[in-house]
Structure formats: C-alpha cells, structure tokens
Specification:
Length: 122
C-alpha cells in the first residue's frame, strides 16, 4: 500500500513543513497524522505537529505533543521554549516561566534569555 511506504511518509513530512511555512497548519496536521500513526516514535514529526497545533491555536493538543517530545528529549531547548509559549498563550504564566527558564539554561540564546526574565525572580 502506498500510504505505508516510508518514502510516502518522508514526502508527507516535507509537505507538512511547507504547509506550515505557508500558514496552513491544519493541512500540516492532517499530513502528519498519518506519518505519526506509522511512526509514533518519530520525535521530529511530533515536534512539527506540535508547532502546527500551536499555529492553529489548538493549544491543548500542542501542549500534549510538546510534552511528549520533552519526555523523549528533555534537553530540547526549542521544545521547552515552544511549550512555554503555548502556556503563555493559554494564560498559564507560571508554567510558561518554568519552561522559558529551562530553554534559556539549555540554550542561552538572546530570545530565550529575554523570555526567561531571570531578573524578575520571585
């Protein structure tokens, strides 16, 4: 069956990246659903689907996917940062701060450090 062909999944993953870049996150999610169904361990596909959920303002599914990525890759600074943005957008600033700070500790990029607001420590 062509939908079970690993090449098809690579093509779908790349197409999903393009759809997300073209601001069609729902289309990206649809393509990624089949990729993840066939390869549930594929962290890159899960991270891309989390980003697509976030872009589509589907915050709870985005949160769950980012958390799953972090279970597998606890040192993924981008996933911490994106999860923090998800919590921030959902009105959960205390959860956001924790993940902003983890992202900054793992990868002290200027945007991570700004978002972590270490100067505002409680």
């Amino acid at each position: 069956m062509p939908e079970n062909d690993p090449q098809t999944h690579v093509i779908d993953f790349r197409a999903a990246e393009q759809l997300l870049a073209a601001r069609d996150p729902r289309g990206a999610v649809k393509l990624l659903d089949s990729v993840i169904a066939a390869h549930p361990e594929n962290t890159a596909a899960r991270l891309l689907r989390a980003r697509a959920f976030f872009a589509a303002a589907q915050l709870r599914p985005a949160e769950l996917e980012f958390e799953l990525v972090l279970e597998r890759e606890p040192d993924n600074a981008f996933a911490h940062f994106a999860l923090a943005r998800t919590f921030e957008r959902a009105g959960r600033p205390e959860r956001a701060t924790r993940h902003f700070r983890l992202a900054a500790a793992l990868d002290p990029k200027p945007e991570h450090l700004r978002a972590a607001r270490f100067d505002d420590r409680p």
